[in-house]
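User: Um, any thoughts?
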Amino acid sequence: MSDQAAPVTYASAGVDTHAGDKAVELMKDAVRATHGPQVLGGVGGFAGLYDASALLRYRKPLLATSTDGVGTKVAIAQAMDIHHTIGYDLVGMVIDDIVVVGAKPLFMTDYIACGKVVPERIADIVRGIAGACEVAGAALVGGETAEHPGLLEPDEYDVAGAATGVVEADALLGPERVRAGDVLIALGASGLHSNGYSLVRRVISLAGWELDRDVPEFGRTLGAELLEPTRVYAADCLALAADPGAGVHAFTHVTGGGLAANLARVLPEGLVATVDRSSWVVPAVFDVVRRLGSVPWTDLQNTLNLGVGMVAVVDANGVDAALTRCRELGLPAWELGTIAAAEDLDADGSAEVISGTKGVHGGGVRLVNDYRTS
């Protein structure tokens, strides 16, 4: 073994535990703001503790859980050095998946892997996660920041999270409740949300567009549009589901795979949803991506949400009540289509039908009419 000029320490290997401690100090007030009396132990413990006594009031409580990340949208945040919004994307991707079954989110944990802990940056990320958890009505009970020098560059990071919620068994939403005659209510997206950024980034890279480019169609810079946070639907969806007049039977979260693929996951066999693509105007960001990259509509609709972030499946008699409730919540919503028995539909082959997605062999979704872009 050769002599070394200086001893090797954890810090010289690229890991700064003091920076991690500073990050916790900077973020802890935001995390505590999500805590109600159910959260025990505060910030910094080995495990987050949550008092589940309230579950004793349930007749048959079902726990729902989900985990996800943000994907390559983090590259936009890193390039712009803006980190306080990416947490909304994480919470939207994780918590809104459990709300689909009607589950009330209870708590969430997060994980951040980075090349170098910059306390202010890590605190910004976690403040965003905490802020979105407040919007969703969930407690942020724990997390972990891991420094990975040599694996990630100093300014690189990735985020992931997991959440747990609860729903009464007889209030569970999903395919078992969906019936022929039900109506689809679209809940508008805030933008690209957090899916398809590999496609979007490839398009803008090939076009040579910079993030500080002013785009007239957006009324702001390209970077600002791409970094628009994911809309967090949790509280609004639960309010809609609790409205007896709305008659909500199911929700679907429009994430990777697009509208039709995700809608097909919540339909039972034998039923087909007809989605009217002319029922809304596709927001400018999607059309700009399409035109800039000559992206086929089929590829676009199978990758991006195209302006529909969530869909509620409601009883035909509940449409007016559902739309009224959405207006009261400040949530853009419109009638998107209907559900019918497969044998009752015109099978002339003129409509595109999508089924059997994500390993779920249920109903199908047919897309009719053309998209509107203005």
